[in-house]
Specification:
This protein is of the alpha+beta class and about 300 residues long. The chain has 2 domains: about 35-170, Beta Barrel (Thrombin, subunit H), CATH 2.40.10; about 200-305, no CATH class. The protein has helices at about 10-30, 135-140, 150-165, 270-275, and strands spanning about 40-45, 65-70, 75-80, 85-90, 95-100, 105-110, 115-120, 125-130, 165-170, 175-180, 185, 195, 205, 210, 215-225, 235-240, 245-250, 255-260, 265-270, 275-280, 285-290. Strands 13, 14, 15, 16 and 17 form a 5-stranded antiparallel beta sheet that branches. A 4-stranded antiparallel beta sheet has the order 1-4-3-2, with no helix packed on it. Strand 18 (about 255-260) and strand 19 form a beta hairpin. The radius of gyration is 27 Å and the shape is globular.
Amino acid sequence: MSRKPLRALTRRSVLPALAVLAVLGVGAAAHANRPVPFGDRLVKPGDADSVEASPVGAQTRSADSLELRVGPGLEAFDRQSGELLWSYRREGATALHQAMAGESAVVIWDDGMVTSVRPSDHEVRWHRAVPGLADWLHGEDVKEGLERTEAEKQAGLVQRAAAALQTVGGDEAWVAVVTPALTMGFRDSDGDLRFNSRPLAGCSYDPLRAVHTGYAVLVPRSCTGTNGAGNPLPGGITGFRLSTRGFQLEAGPNVQLRRLDDQRVSIEDGPVLGARTYDTKLAVPESTCTVPFAALHPTPGCPAK
């Protein structure tokens, strides 16, 4: 059996191989130098230039051992020593508020982005943009001609961000983002959009009066429009839940909601309609809160007069 001699590499045979290597090299360089998605940056003490698209630490820590603070990003400190452990930021954006959804820290930014971060290993889990959120955060709700200081403007921005971001722990953690024209719900485990809801024409949601429990997010709505018969549209409360049907409650235009515990909400609807307690887990009124005589104690769970 004869063997064929090894063929010597000629200039013509080398060129295709070199071309392939050049293409691979250009592709690798482009991949390494591509823009970081969403401007994600993780900064650790002593390494101010640390940049990672999805910062994941080799060492995990219990979330209970961390103290999280906001501004200009999400800052994590050791709860016992006070040492700064890491700072997660997004280039060109400022963090306004963060709230826990289960084991995740959900951050709302001034550019209308919402981000879920796992504090134990500072992994960025998902980003979601909510239409109209940035405009509402930066919108003015003061009387025309009233000047505000920069500190007052920033305080208003933070207040709106805290109202817009409603997180629910429960059996399956999720996040509701509320604006006057739109409410969206995201499952925290993967950022999946589970619902989006717009109010009736002529009505708007009021994030500043919204509350959440471990089972639902309740958002009052006010209306300035009329129905087909020309009658004013009624206000009300929309209850959002992740995996089960939501609910609608009748309420006056100035209704105030107050969380009583992880399951119940007090609905205070003025002297005429009175107050009542609503069970957000069962989606039913708990009991009447009417007190016929001042000498009697209010029903358990009802606000004292």
